[in-house]
Amino acid sequence: MKAGSGFISVITILILFLSLNSQAQEAVIKINNNLSGNYLETKVCFTNNTEAVAAQFDIVYDSDGLTPLGEIVGETVLSERGFSINTKEISPGRMRVIISPPIKIPLPLLPDGCLIHLNFSVKVETVNLPSFSNVILSNDRAERVGARIR
């Protein structure tokens, strides 16, 4: 064994550990779309592998092919924990969603599971399904938290 090769092995193991650890520190946010005839149900689901307490994102959809049916609805997993949801259509085909924690100390983490859902009527045969844009997650210190979008 060459002198210093043990040191290099330890450094390699540390780099591998840190890279694996940093990957585990991302939240996963995804859209589940269920198309049935002229009806599309869209759910936003979340896995919180971080300290995320709040979220903001845009849901982008094909406004020529989809018409929202009603408001974006929060799932009970949020309301049971006191989270609030604010939404606004900021332009045709783009809805902004802000999920805020209740004001208490300590701030609760965003829960795992499906957080919101919205429904669309489908106006055309071929339509682009809704997707995310501008995803921002933050912790209780207002620092940005990593997110993997699926």
Topology (elements, then pairings):
Elements: H1 5-24, E1 27-36, E2 39-47, E3 54-60, E4 66-74, H2 76-79, E5 84-91, E6 94-100, E7 113-122, E8 131-138, E9 144-145, E10 147-149
Parallel strand pairs: 1-10
Antiparallel strand pairs: 1-2, 2-7, 3-6, 3-8, 4-7, 5-6, 8-9
How many helical stretches?
2
Radius of gyration: 20 Å
Poorly predicted tracts of residues: 9-24
Question: Tell me, what is the CATH class?
Answer: Mainly Beta
Strand sequence of the main sheet, in spatial order?
4-7-2-1-10
Sheet-strand content, in percent, reads over 45%
Task: Quickly give the CATH architecture.
Answer: Sandwich
**Largest beta-sheet characterization:** 5 strands, mixed
- Outline: elongated
- Measured as a percent range, the helix fraction is 10-25%
Number of strand elements: 10
Order of helices and strands: HEEEEHEEEEEE
What structural category do the secondary elements indicate? alpha+beta
CATH topology: Immunoglobulin-like
Query: If you average the pLDDT, what whole number results?
Result: 85
Determine the N-to-C terminus distance. Answer: 45 Å
Give the number of domains: 1
